[in-house]
Amino acid sequence: MIKSMGTEEDVRVLVLAGGLSYERDVSLRSGRRVLDALRAAGLQADMRDADVALLPALQEDPPDAVVIALHGATGEDGSLRGVLDLCGVPYVGCDARASRLAWDKPSAKAMLREAGIPTPDWVALPHDRFSELGAVAVLDRIADRLGLPLMVKPAQGGSGLGASVVRDEADLPAAMVGCFAYDSTALVERYVAGMDVAVSVVDLGDGPQPLPAVEIVPRNGVYDYAARYTAGLTTWHTPARLDPAVAARVASTALAAHEALGLRDLSRVDLIVDGEGEPHVLEVNVSPGMTETSLLPLAVQAAGLDFGKVLAGLVGRATARG
C-alpha cells in the first residue's frame, strides 16, 4: 500500500505550466489542476509560465520546490530540469539525463530492449534521410520489414500529435508527412493489436510502486489528441479489465520500464496488452498529464488515494533532495 508523506504547510511550491510547445493548452489545464490540488492539500502554491521572466524570479525569490506541469520539449527533454539544477531549485520528477532519454522514443526503446523489456520493433527515420534515400524505396522496405499495420508517430512528442495507424501501405506516405509536421524524425513501429493501458508509477518514500492500470477505449479506435482531451470521445476503465495474473505482469513491466530508464518520483508507462496477455511498452512519459481526463489522476483515484496528498508527498521528496 502506498503511503503519503507529510509536508510542512509553509512549503512554497511553484507550478510551471504553459510553454511554447504544441501542447501548451493541455499544459495550462494540467497546471491549474495541480495548483488547485496542492492548495487543497494545504501547501502554498503559485503557477507561472516558463518564459524569460522565470530565471530572474527564481533568483529573487526561489520556491522550496517546483512541480513541472509542462508537456512537450520544454517539460520533458531535460533542458528545463538542467536549468533548475543550475539554480539549485529542487523539482518533482526525474533528473535531466533521465528526462532526455525518455523523451527520445527511439533511445528509450533501445534502452528498454537492452533491459529485456518488450517493446514493438521499430525504425527511426529522420526527414533528411527519408528524402535522400528516396521516399518510395524506404517506405517499401519499412512495410516489408515490419509488416502492416504500422504505428507512425514523432520520435519526440506527446499527446498523440502527429501519430496515426497505417493499415494500408498506400496511406503510409501521408502518415509520414503528418508526422514530420511535428518532428524532424519519425518513429515507425510494428502495430500491436490489443488492450491499450497506462500504468502510472509513483514513489512516495517506499520506492516506486505501480498504481492500478487504466484501460483506454477510444470511440474511434485511435487514442489521438482529440480522444485524449475531448469529453465523450474515450471511455476509461480503472482498474483495467485484466485477469489478475495479467494485471500483475503489466504492473511489473511498467515498473521495470520506470527503473530501466532511471526515473524517479513519477512516470506514466503506456503499454499494449496483446491477445496472449503479454504487455508491450510503447513509451514512457516523465511529465504525465494532470487534466480532468488524464490517466495519472484516474489511477490515483482508483488506488483510493487523494490526488493533492500524493502531489504533496512528491513535493516532500523533492524538498528533501534540495
From TrEMBL:
Q: Among the entry's GO cellular component annotations, what is one?
A: cytoplasm
**Which keywords accompany this UniProt record?**
ATP-binding, Cell shape, Cell wall biogenesis/degradation, Cytoplasm, Ligase, Magnesium, Manganese, Metal-binding, Nucleotide-binding, Peptidoglycan synthesis
Catalytic activity entry: 2 D-alanine + ATP = D-alanyl-D-alanine + ADP + phosphate + H(+)
Residues that, per the record, bind Mg(2+) 2: 283, 285
Database matches in InterPro entries: ATP-grasp, ATP_grasp_subdomain_1, D_ala_D_ala, Dala_Dala_lig_C, Dala_Dala_lig_N, PreATP-grasp_dom_sf
Q: Where in the cell is it found?
A: Cytoplasm
GO terms assigned for molecular function: ATP binding; D-alanine-D-alanine ligase activity; metal ion binding
Residues binding Mg(2+) 1: 270, 283
GO BP annotations, alphabetical order:
cell wall organization; peptidoglycan biosynthetic process; regulation of cell shape
Domain ATP-grasp stretches = 109-316
Q: Which family does it belong to?
A: Belongs to the D-alanine--D-alanine ligase family.
User: What function is annotated for this protein?
Assistant: Cell wall formation.
What is this protein's record name?
D-alanine--D-alanine ligase
Tell me the organism: Krasilnikovia cinnamomea
Q: Which gene encodes it?
A: ddl
